[in-house]
Each structure stands twice: as C-alpha cells, then as structure tokens.
Amino acid sequence: MTGRILLVDDEDVFREDIASLLRHEGYVCEAAASGAEALRIAQSEAPDIILSDMVMPGISGAELVRTLAAACPETPIVVITAHATVETTVEAFRAGATDYLLKPLVIDDLIRKVERCLEHRRLQAELRFLRKQVSLAGGGTTIVGTSRPIQAVRDLIARVGPSNSSVLITGESGTGKELVARALHAAGSNERAPFIAVNCAALPRDLIESELFGHMRGAFTGAMRDKRGLFELANGGTLFLDELCELPVELQPKLLRAIEQQEILPVGGTRVIRTNVRIIAATNRVLRDEIATRRFREDLYFRIAVVEIALPPLRDRREDIPMLADFLIARLNDRLKRRVNGVAHSALRVLMSAPWRGNVRELENVLERAMLLTNNEIIGIEDLPAELAGTLATSDPSDDLRNAVRAYEREHIRHVLATTNGNREEASRRLGIDASTLYRRMRDLAL
Predict the structure, then answer these.
(1) 0.70 exceeded by pTM
(2) What is the CATH number assigned to the segment(s) 315-444?
(3) What contacts 100, CB < 8 A, 6 or more positions away?
(4) Is the Cα torsion angle 113, 99, 441, 104 positive or negative in sign?
(5) Inter-residue contact 277 to 238 (CB < 8 Å)
(6) Which of 229, 239, 234 is nearest to 268 (CA)?
(7) What would the CATH number be for the domain defined by 4-122?
C-alpha cells in the first residue's frame, strides 16, 4: 500500500534513518527538521500521514499537532514520543493526534500503524462515496463494509439482483436482512416498481390470508368492502416476507401456488388474479430444522430458496465496525439534529471488542444513545453503556502508558488466538503482521 508520509523530528540521524526505512518500504517520505518546515511541506504536498515528534525546539509538539490538524483535517497524525506518560499522550490526542508511537521505535509497529492509517484514509474516501450514494438513492440500499463476508454478500446481490428469481435471506436478528432485500429489489427493478415489506410475525393469525391475498366484501365478519392484498399491491415489483417461518403451515400451500402459478385467489373470491411479483423472504431460523419438525413445507422452501444469501453476524466482520460507526453517526446526525464527528480511539476499541448479539441494530442503538447523552463532538468511552465498556478488560490497572499498551496488546493477541483456535498463521494474518513477529511478541508478552 503506497502513500505520502510527512516525518517531523529534530534529531537528524533518527529522522534520516526512519525516512530511509519508509522509502525502502515503498512510501514517498518527506522529512522536516522543525515545525515551521513541516507546516510548509504539509500545505504544499498534502501528505496522507503525518509522523511527528512531540518534543522539539520552537513550536511545541502539541501546538504543531493542533496546527497540522487544522491545516490537514483528514490526515491522520501519529505522534512519536520518548516520554511515555498519560499526560503528554492525552495532550496530543486533544490537539488532534489519532495515534502514537513510543521511542525507541519498533519497526514492525511503525509499519503496521502506517498501513492502518492508509487503510483509514481509504475507508474515509469510500465512506464519502457511500454517503453520496445514500444521498442519491434515499439511503435505503447501501451495504456498508469492506470485509470478505460483506463483499461476498455484495457480489451475490450484484449477480442475483437483476433476475426475477426468489431469494431467501438468512441471518441473525439485526444483521440487515431488509436492507439486503431492498438492495436486491433496486438492482432488479425500475425505480417506480413497488417494494412491499411485511413481517409475518406481526400479522394477526386469522388475518394473514386476507392481508396477503385480499378479500371480497362479505367474505367474513367485518369484511365491509373489497380489499386488495399485498400480492396485488406489489404487482410488478417485490414482496418481502420477513420472518417467513411464522407463516402458518395451513397457509403455506396457497403461498406456494401464488409463487408457482403467479396467480392469487382473494378470500371469498371466485376469480383468480394474475400477478407478477418477485418474492424475497427472510428468516433468522434454520429452515432445514423447521422442515424436519414439519413446521415448514419442503416444497415451499425449494421454491423460495432459489438463491440463499447468508448474512454474517457483526462479530464475524469486526473490521467493518469503524466504517459502520461513521456511516451510522452521519445518518443519526440528520435524524437527531446533532453534530457528532466520530468515535474516540478508546471508544472504538470497545466497539470492536463487544459481542454484538444484536448485531448492527444493537450497534446503532448504542451509538444513538451515546449521541443523545454526550456533550462532546466525539463519542468517548464514558458515553458508552457501562456493561459495554466493561468488555474491554485490561490485566494491568497501572496508569503507566507503556504498561497499558502492553496490557491491551496482550489481551488483543489472546483474543485473536482464541478466535482462530490457536492457529498462529491465521492469527498473524488477521493481526497484519508476519508469523515471526507474532512469535516474538508472544514471547515478550509471556503468552
């Protein structure tokens, strides 16, 4: 991954050694010996990342960071300091820094943080593009994320969307099944085609047939007039049946006929009505289990699940959480009339460590609560629910920054190893380091 780096440090040997190392790694690196020189380069060269010492003659480190952050608001600033105290680092973050490195530098840490900063810049650019898409499309069909699982979902939508085939969407509650259904509809229909969504669990059991297929006047007590059903209202477009497993077994043959024959018979009617409706269904249950217990018809399953799209839980795509948080905050700002600009690094670590049993829906609820309660422009760890903040445990309560960093690194590596069942090769890939570096860090951290 290439990028333009501005390195600021008044120690000549250190500055030139690090600049040479970064250039050898393929980066374009401009080096500045003072704050004044750094400001001149930043204004003319537009760096992708700024690495700056915190203690230099002339302009102080904090003042330089504050000025650079104002001049380059979208550029990550990583401070380099040999003074590992909480106070100096907090001062840097308040001035606008996004991360820090401790002297003496660990080369692997330096390269990894540079790569992460470049990835953050790329995600910011993609987020701006997604926001533009939301503005143009009304905000209803954007699938946010760059992880492999979500890329696979997006690929299936692109392949299946233009067809008229039935689709079954599976996944836990809160994973965005209706969002995917709307994206499929948008990919396969003109903008005027109707999209009708119905939650089968929310329909009264004795009225489901009438709601889906309509009824004629006098068909039952209370039927004072003819009523068009959802199939007829969705004609030419898409009918999305959420929580499909809640559909009564006795009604499933009629749904099967409606899909196969493309015709419906209203309750109390004598004349069939021809329809052209695409069926997209969703469930958070395992339909095979429902079939085995005779709560769902196998022939209906085969008719609906022409293509099945399985949505990953949020815990299986944690790398999407920073982008999702930015996206949701931007959307919530409009609805809540707030001006929150993002999530602090410490709070983001909490969000990326939480179990998220409610998936994206739970994440949105947590962010909405935080936005309503915070008095700041950035959501901090103190704005998150106490039970959520408690998920990020540290093994060393010391205020010493170096110990805190070691404690977090130890717990993070232990967590990744647990998720890979101890597979160190896979763990090193997920951590973004080579296997030998992982072995060395595990030895240093007594893991």
Answers:
(1) no
(2) 1.10.8.60
(3) 78, 79, 80, 81, 89, 92
(4) positive
(5) yes
(6) 229
(7) 3.40.50.2300
Q: Could you give the strand order of the β-sheet that contains 99-102, starting from the edge strand earlier in sequence? A: 28-32, 4-8, 49-53, 77-81, 99-102
Q: Report the topology of domain 148-312.
A: Rossmann fold (3.40.50)
> Which residues touch 297 (CB under 8 Å, ≥6 apart)?
249, 252, 253, 256, 291
Quickly count: other Cβ atoms within 10 Å of residue 370's Cβ: 24
Structure tokens at 369: 């609560």
Span 18-74, pLDDT tens digits: 999 999 988 889 999 988 888 888 877 778 899 988 877 777 778 888 888 888 887
Establish whether domains 4-122 and 315-444 are of one fold.
no
Nearest C-alpha neighbor of 324 from the set 384, 78, 315, 137: 315
H or E element: which one contains 157?
helix 148-160
| Contacts of 262 by beta carbon, 8 Å cutoff, 6+ apart | 274, 275, 276, 277
Q: How far apart (Å, rounded) are the C-alpha atoms in residues 47 and 255?
A: 59
CA dihedral sign, ordered 5, 6, 8, 11: positive
Q: How many residues would you count in the chain?
A: 447
Rounded (5°) CA angle 63-64-70: 90
262-319 residue pLDDT tens:
999 999 998 899 999 999 999 999 999 999 999 999 999 999 999 999 999 999 998 8
Quick one: tokens of 41? 């380069």
Name the packing angle between helices 12-24 and 107-137 (round to 10°).
60
